[in-house]
Fold this sequence. Notes:
Number of strands of chain A: 15
Order of helices and strands of chain B: HHHHHHHHHHHHHH
Strand order of the largest sheet of chain A: 3-6-7-9-10-11-12-13-4-5-8
Order of helices and strands of chain A: HEEEEEEEEHEEEEEHEHHEH
Number of helices of chain B: 14
Strand content of chain B: under 5%
Distance between the termini of chain B: 38 Å
Oligomer: heterodimer
Radius of gyration of chain A: 21 Å
Helix content of chain A: 10-25%
Strand content of chain A: 25-35%
Shape of chain A: globular
Radius of gyration of chain B: 20 Å
Amino acid sequence: MRRTIGCVVAACLLLAGCGQSGGGTISPGGAAAGSPSGTGGSNYGSQGGPIVPAPVADGRVPLSSGAATLGPENTLIQFVGTHVGDRPDPRTCNFQKFSGTAQLDTDGKTLKSVSVEIETNSLATFHPDLTTHLNSPDFFDTKEYPTAKFQITSISAPNDDGEVTITGDFTLLKATKEISFPAVVSVNDDGLSLKAEFNIDRTEFGMDRLQERVVNTVALTVVIGQETGPIQTSGPGPGSATRGGGPGRGGGRGPGGGRGPGGGFDPAAFFTQRDADSDGKLTGDEIPELMRQDLAAIDTDGDGAISQAEFEARMRSFRPPGGGRGPGGNPPPDNDKSAADKRPTNDE
Amino acid sequence: MVRNPRRCAWRAPVVVGALAPDEWAMNFLVEALGIGVAVPTAVSLSVYSAGVRLPWGESCRRFAAPMAFAAAYCVAYVLMPKWAELIPSRHWHWTLYLVPAAAAIGALAAIDRVPLVVRWLVFLLAAIVSAWLFLPHWLKLPAWLAANNSLGLTPRAVYVPILTAYLLAIAALVEPLGRRLPATSVLGGMALTAVCLAVFSGAMVSVMYGEMAMIAAAALVGCWVGACILPQASAARGMSLAYAVAVGGWAWIGCIEPQRPLVPLMLVPVAPLALWSCAFGRPAQLRGFKGAALHLGAVLIALALAAGLVIASSALNRPPAVEGEW
């Protein structure tokens, strides 16, 4: 009998202990003005380990023989989903692994085509549970559909503002749909830049689960090497401007974006948190998943571990000179209407 | 009363944007609680009640619970929206066919005149077929094995035997419990376990998988309630294979889905084996409230341990929250 009672108590303690560790911390201090979910801190990949923010190149993507190679190092593919109801709580996510090419016309002045293939299981959010759920069959079903593709089929002539309308085939889950959206494209001797913000209806691609919780309209932002202005940060420490205002950190777009007091990503604090055995180095599982994949480049002294200096050097390499503002933060919330609704939809 | 479009256009695509958010919420409730819980419970209870009243003797009555379980699972599955496809294109779609097949085969194999060896061979065959069909095309070898795969093993060569052994073990070890313990205890243990699995699947893997696993759980609850109302000594004897394929199968499906497999989830369907601790001596003779409390208590303890491991595993796989993250 004593043994039975002991087992029950042990199980209860185990359950209670595990329950406490669940869920992410919510800190209003990290929220940016104009965004209820403005976030600071690191990102998490679908593999479960923290991942570093995807760098956004300042300026343009250089061209070689009229073509540019696209990847996370120079391009941002970000989407924002919002919840149904009075609290939209926008959730910003981006893809960490994708590849593509942009091809110029023979005149070398206009964009001719862009094709991108995205590894859907590289989607990253600021909350591991959310990342896990987005990977599940309820949303991206990344095990069954590991890739998404976009291929431009036509680009209209630019209007007076230099804005073009891009039309292309977007393949997500098992559906391929033609979508059109406005974009600002610029090509010059320095390279190519593109910025597009538009909405898609996730249900058109068969992503029709949980419509009672999550708005069907998803706001997409695609930026190819666009130069951005400085960010107004007030986070602690010199390292707080790591792509501030980028996906999930900014509060809305335009003036006022940025993180609120107490927010911001602190590489030193993050390093300390990861360093479970406090030996001053990240080893084994302490190394974030995506850093592990690029360990050879980060581990400059070749000891198989990442020191704090190496870690911070890596983080600095992502920071745009002068502290860049990422292209678009979370759309500002609207109690009655999803912020995403304010963007042009495919139909519009 | 909000009209449910799925009732109007059976399994038809829902018109996007036609419903207000509160209507979607109602729609989800209808889907999850109505089709996912109420329908299978009612169907299994009805079929069981009808089955035990048929005037064809004991040999007929022992089929009541497996048939009730199979009917309830199939009816609820078919009523689910179109993502629960009738023609299998995903591994978990096969449950629509494997569960009733396992119920029928398991009930036949559980007849007393069938030799034990034959019964186990039937279970083995059913487990192999189920394991083969439950294996998704995207499943890969674990990294450590892929790195040292000198034998050139394929994922199917590795996982089919493992899953076969798992399903066979559950079916073969649960089956004798139906002969040693009251049917209400065995069916109750199965039902509690299935509910626990459905909750974990929905909370930690996918809401959709949770809904589907809940169908099996609700069908088992219907059988359990039926056995409580209309007790039949043999009610649980033919259920083991159907239980193994349905509940064990959904545990497998939920285990392999996350980026990091949630292996402890596969411990949950094993919980009814805790009834073996009560299968001998005086505990096996206990009936009524005391017997049910003892038997189900054993299952609940096993479930608590399995649940602890599932939660701990999920928490360990999750990276630490960063200060000020949200």
